[in-house]
Design brief:
This protein has helices at 6-34, 37-54, 56-59, 91-126, 128-142, 146-157, 161-187, 191-198, 203-211, 216-240, 251-258, 267-294. It is mainly alpha-helical and 299 residues long.
């Protein structure tokens, strides 16, 4: 019969084996995710967009606001690969600098909406009274179309980069909050959560140590879609003239400025439209594959 002093040694030895097994499962899932063609396409699109934005000043000899009236409305050619607009500005240059804005808007909206949405979802799922009130508020916000709600917020706040990010973040907070709230409701009755509470664990510790890590998978999946939604929404708001200020090197602004020249110079609206389509498609493919790996409700 094993001596009592041997029991703790065996218990300590079991920990690394379980941890190693978990890491092995996660590594296989990550490799399987990378081997998916949709993942390769999505990551390639996102990587090219990031590189285009970061290297924009080194990839073109022109400035995004450089006006050359004598070269206005030139079709794509050797000197201007994607042509010029009605002020003679190089479309390729403005597209490259517009990629910066699209990445910045999408990233900031994801960060702000995720931070607020996770906090609201955790508190709402763990505190029933606050959760019921929060869900009624979220239902009221989501009753309005997102673009219309953002349009109203920007009309009240004013047209600027920060206000666009703030308005879109406010619009997409409910999406994250609902996802986290539903996850917390399903996790709060799990045995490890009940055990942590029975051992005297504080509410904040239980939420951050035991519940939050298990809600991040669905949040990551939802964030990829919010990134794509934010890019489309920013372009739509700029197209309507209430997003970023006129003259800004934004894909939406380029579309808005080129709509009056669609018959004579269709390249002004064609290339930013293709860029938005490719980016959103890549992000959606990436989100679908992430959902298959991270969301336990999807087989």
């Amino acid at each position: 019969m094993a001596r009592p002093k041997d029991i703790p040694v065996q218990g300590r030895a079991a920990g690394p084996k379980v941890s190693t097994k978990v890491r092995s499962v996660r590594l296989r899932a990550f490799r399987r995710w990378l081997d998916t063609p949709a993942t390769v396409v999505g990551l390639t699109v996102l990587l090219l967009l990031l590189l285009a934005g970061l290297l924009a000043p080194f990839l073109t000899p022109y400035g995004p606001a450089t006006i050359a009236i004598r070269e206005r409305l030139l079709p794509p050619g050797s000197e201007h690969l994607l042509g010029t607009d009605h002020l003679g500005r190089d479309i390729a240059t403005r597209m490259l600098f517009g990629a910066r804005l699209s990445v910045a808007v999408g990233t900031l909206v994801v960060i702000f909406s995720s931070a607020v949405g996770i906090a609201m979802g955790l508190l709402g799922g763990y505190n029933r009274r606050f959760g019921d009130l929060m869900m009624r508020m979220i239902d009221g916000i989501m009753a309005f179309p997102g673009l219309v709600f953002a349009l109203a917020l920007i009309a009240a706040l004013g047209s600027s980069f920060f206000n666009v990010v703030l308005a879109l973040s406010f619009v997409y907070v409910p999406r994250i909050a609902r996802v986290v709230h539903a996850s917390v409701l399903s996790l709060r009755n799990e045995e490890y959560v009940v055990a942590a509470e029975a051992l005297g664990g504080r509410e904040a510790r239980v939420l951050l140590r035991h519940i939050l890590p298990n809600t991040l998978g669905p949040v990551v999946v939802q964030s990829t879609f919010i990134f794509a939604y934010a890019v489309i929404a920013e372009a739509s708001l700029s197209f309507l003239g209430v997003g970023l200020p006129p003259g800004t090197a934004s894909w939406g602004v380029i579309l808005s400025e080129g709509r009056n020249y669609m018959l004579g110079a269709p390249w002004i609206t064609l290339f930013p439209g293709i860029a938005i389509f490719v980016l959103v498609l890549g992000l959606n493919l990436l989100g679908d594959t992430l959902r298959d790996i991270l969301d336990p409700k999807v087989s």
